[in-house]
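Pilot study result, target chain (419 residues):
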Amino acid sequence: MNGYPKMIRIRQRFEAPVVRDTARKVREELGALELRRRIEPGDTVAIPAGSRGITDIVTILKTVAEHLREIGARPFIVPAMGSHGGGTAEGQQEVLRHIGITEARMGVPIRASMEVVKIGETPEGFPVHLDRHAAQADHIAVINRVKPHTEFYGAVESGLLKMIAIGLGKRQGAEIYHKVAVKHPFSEVAQAVARVVFRERSVLFGLGVVENGYEQTARIQAAGPEGLIALDKALLREAIRLMPRLPFDEIDVLIVDEMGKNISGAGMDTGVIGRKSWAFHRGMEEKPSITRIFVRDLTEASAGNACGIGLADFTTQRLVAKIDMEVSRLNALTSTRPRGVMIPMAFDTDREAVDTALATAGVMDPREARVVWIKNTLEIAEMAVSEAFIPEMEGRANLKALTEPGEMRFDGEGNLVHL
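Predicted structure:
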């Protein structure tokens, strides 16, 4: 390799509204719904808990459970995460435990099962399934973070309705709706499924959460079943507006320290890296445009689930060694995205991967390559970028250089050394 680009560390600033007291805000939202009018003493309420990383989810779930108990209900938590956790009840409970959601901490039971009950069909004939425990409860409370989906575009993407269709639909729901979404807009399917659930079961409320670019809770809002679809749509628009993005549209090489299911359902947020497969299938152009992506490692919290590794061009043997292929295959096939677990070219060292990425990125002089280096697709407030971006940073108040340009360095084992 004829040299490497010099790198500088930079910080980008995002618009970042913040909810300062999460528990208080949850209580305010639920209090405004006057749930006592719809609950009889002793009524059971199923509260779904997903696998997605949500900053304040422990506080939010605990506060919801406390409020429901205070008004006379008997709430319990249901793991609601499609086929995650290896597609087993025990695995899904373990996912919740890793997040910090336990019976002792929540103060309510956790009822885990992969069994579902068919409660109806959409007008198009798609079956609607619900987790057995949720289907048997007197009421269901829907809680989720609302954000852009990693695969699809639409009026609703990844939020409250997805929790109803895929989370509470368990593995069957995940398989059905991901399969259907290959030919039908997911947004329309999710709304149709939700309407069946609203008709056949008592959905008490929906509580949506939006996070800012620093992974802080930016907004919490609740609505009754009559306003739940509109709430999901409104919060998605807010989430898109606040979504963190890489500060440059044209990138030769992106280096990602880690990927994983705790970072994004797709391992890497496709909205950040510009590789949403829905767009690929339809020939749409996405930004940023990244020629080569090199992913260095898999998070421990992923427990071997490497769904999304197929979005990368290059990786390391140490990442490959951590893959639980059975779990990864199950997740990829359930979501009808086999490409997601296709293992890219893997190298023994970071140096080999970086050399190959630079050599195949279409840049004549690697020292002039446009390189961005991030920890993961969630944490992009700070990053390292090559000096080729310096001219583009001038006059941009949201970008600040933290260091002078420095050499890209490798340790004695050929792995990258952080600036």
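One observation from the pilot: Residues 7-14+245-417 form one domain. A full batch analysis is planned for the follow-on phase.
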